[in-house]
Specification:
Strand content: under 5%
CATH class of the largest domain: Mainly Alpha
Shape: globular
CATH topology of the largest domain: AhpD-like
Number of helices: 9
Largest sheet: none
Radius of gyration: 17 Å
Number of strands: 0
Order of helices and strands: HHHHHHHHH
CATH superfamily of the largest domain: AhpD-like
Structural class: mainly alpha
């Protein structure tokens, strides 16, 4: 069976080496997930462009989507990375665990977003009418709905990639959820 390893900088293309340099400069290291994308000539750059696209959603809202999708897709790498990023965006440990369970009782608008995201991911894009109604009632728009789906797609790509490859998690390991939260 093909071993799925994380390439080192000297094993990637010149284009990807330049991206590695930018990542090291901007965040201090090249996360294993990003490095894994560099097995492909264009995937890393394409993925980073998708991740960094202009959005109608605020950073905290994107983190809610990332946390919910990563939990449902059972990606420990992305749960861990987005727990760290969620903390950088002002969420507490308790709030992050609740978000990962698909709700956010501490903020009604965030709760509608978390519940909508959970419904979208669990139902493979066929969110319940209740989740959609609550999402729009919370003040979200059709443009926001489209951005939610783009972020879900972005996160699903990474979730699946890590779930297939299983490379080392290079972020502090996220706490496991208690069964009753899920």
């Amino acid at each position: 069976m093909q071993e799925l390893t994380v390439p080192t900088k000297d094993q990637v293309s010149e284009n990807n080496k330049a991206i590695f340099d930018n990542l090291e400069k901007n965040i201090g290291f090249v996360p294993n997930l990003y490095a894994f994308y560099a097995h492909n000539e264009t995937a890393l750059g394409d993925y980073l462009a998708l991740q960094n696209r202009k959005s109608t959603l605020k950073a905290k809202e994107r983190e809610i989507i990332n946390l919910v999708a990563s939990q449902i897709n059972n990606c420990r790498y992305c749960q861990s990375a987005h727990t760290a990023i969620g903390k950088m965006n002002g969420f507490t440990d308790e709030q992050i665990l609740e978000i990962r369970s698909g709700s956010a009782s501490f903020d009604p608008k965030f709760d509608a977003l978390a519940r909508f995201t959970r419904s979208v991911v669990e139902n493979r894009g066929r969110a319940t009418d209740e989740a959609k109604e609550a999402f729009f009632a919370a003040g979200y728009t059709v443009a926001n709905l489209i951005d939610v789906i783009v972020v879900v797609g972005d996160k699903t790509i990474s979730n699946y990639l890590h779930n297939l490859a299983g490379f080392e998690i290079d972020f502090p390991l996220a706490e496991e959820l208690n069964e009753e939260l899920v």
